[in-house]
Amino acid sequence: MTKAPLSDSIQDYLKAVYKLQSEQGRVTIGAIAKDQSVSPASASAMVKKLAALDLLEHEPYRGARLTDAGERVALEVIRHHRLLELYLARTLGVSVDDVHEEADRLEHVISEELEARIDRALGFPTHDPHGDPIPDANLEWPAKA
What are the distances in angstroms from CA 78 to CA 40, 83, 95, 124? Predict the structure, then answer.
């Protein structure tokens, strides 16, 4: 039996928590709400949902952090996003200022096969057009230069 795909909203929250926890460790509901431009009640409901899916661990008053499974999903979405930004800029000539919003929409819908083709076509890049690192196919960050 195959697992149902995670909603765009779930993926966006996981990506946000990944970013926030790499900046500040455990993440508060308030920080998540602010990042996602939602009410604390909405963020709290999503945190409970992510915890029920074993994608995040939350301790009241201590904050939240991604589980290994949640981190893998977040890294996959980040990889899709950054590969798409580079592809749009380099191959299609979309302005670097405009690629972020397009990639935000497309990151949720590309297949793993298309991801691999884009990666190969771009020569297995390590950084997006903004200079941010792109996780490789094994979801490992590139070595620091």
Answer: 24, 8, 20, 15
